[in-house]
Amino acid sequence: MSSTPPDRDDDVRRDDPLIAAEWSLGLLEGEELLAARGKHAVDPDFAWRKEWWDNWFAPLADEIAPAEPSTDLWDRIATAINAPAPVPAEVIALRAGVKRWRIIAALTSAAAAVVLMVGVLGPTPTPQPQPQAPALAAAPLVATVPIGETGLRLDVTYIPASRQMLVSAAGLTADGVHDHELWLVPKDGGALQSLGVIAPGEVNSMALPDEVTRNLASGAQLLLTREPLGGKPAEAQAGPVVARGAFAPV
Question: Which pLDDT score, from 0 to 100, does residue 207 have?
Fold first, then answer.
């Protein structure tokens, strides 16, 4: 297995953000530079990326102190150009140096791409739990149960927050022979649920159990039946219906 580091240039995906960064760093030349300039002229997104990188690298360049080349620089360059060809060992060393430079350049480009993603897109924000809005209390339900043509009626109000039901039988009088019982008709077609015997001339409040409140909603039907004194006997069927009503929200 060769110990020579692999050429990493092909491992770097050179998309528009990376090409724009290399152009800003002055790493493009020849056909690549011409292609980048052409794309800059017709592609607003690519032009924006180039400008973004120019602005990002500018502060880094400002931190580099200016320096003048020494007076003997050109003499040393000429001497190096006219020097005899390096021995094979130096050629190997030079190639190794170039290989290292290419690897460093590739890694630098990859890092630049990462910086672009972080700088432009920003870190993914951590979702923050949203405060729960206070639950609104369910609106009360009301029902009117008119008693035939008498002009009398029952007024029934259900308060969901307290599970209390108010039944007003003001104006009604007892006949001493019958009682009247109020019933809820479940929407699922189940058995009638008793809401109690009506007390004529009174306003009463009662707490309702879960099996009743789960069936209370807008549109729920009410029935008023005529029963023996004390209400429907346990083993008997409900008496004749004398009035009907339905709940509606306030």
Answer: 92
